[in-house]
């Protein structure tokens, strides 16, 4: 089971791994906490962003081979201009939810599916989005309740990421609000990562999953992250996005595994 905060998070962080597991015959379940209704998008009159993003999620899930998609139904908490908790948010915002109740709801799905593995986020929620931090808290507790043995924290190896962004900054003018230095403490350092999953064979599905989230490729005053990623040429895409990273906290430092179900030691 893969637990994400909003539609499109699955495409960015875990799509290759999901497609790989589905191809191996595993039942892959995707759960999102919110419909992502506060994301940026250019919508036509009468369109509801939450409904649009859930339709996109189902399209992405179909491409990846998911057997089931669920939304816990919490409100998208949004993000302040400074990158923290937004002052104005819905009454049922995920960040304000009772963590234990949310964990019980997620645990019920884990138990129903008899899930062997749960994927969440690292404690910082990757880049610090409040809903992503809440996914970590809720997911960790849900696994305890359901007795799910394997808990993987989906993340990014920030060491090569920072180097890549610095190099890109020499030829590409990032938006004013984009500060490469914020990534120096985001996601996870190389030494903490336990799983490096090669998903290059599933780059086509991963790219298609990203492309399904059309609403998130537009809106805002600068290039959207998803739109930029989809412009990357195929061979470069497989190289840049061909690895997905996870941290399993119950494994010793220095562990290096290449499949979610690998045991330590091998």
Would you mind describing this structure in some detail?
It is a single chain. With 266 residues, this protein is an alpha/beta fold. The chain has one domain (2-156, 188-247): LmbE-like (Rossmann fold, 3-Layer(aba) Sandwich), CATH 3.40.50. It is built from ten helices and seven strands. It has helices at 9-13, 15-23, 49-64, 99-113, 125-128, 130-146, 158-168, 203-212, 225-230, 234-240, and strands spanning 2-4, 29-34, 68-74, 117-121, 150-155, 195-198, 243-247. Strands 4-5-7-6 form a four-stranded mixed beta sheet. It has a three-stranded parallel beta sheet with strand order 1-2-3, sandwiched between helices. Helix 3 (49-64) links the parallel strand 2 and strand 3 (68-74). Helix 3 (49-64) packs antiparallel against helix 8 and helix 4 (99-113) crosses helix 6 (130-146). The chain is globular, with a radius of gyration of 18 Å. The chain starts with a strand and ends in a 19-residue tail after the last strand.
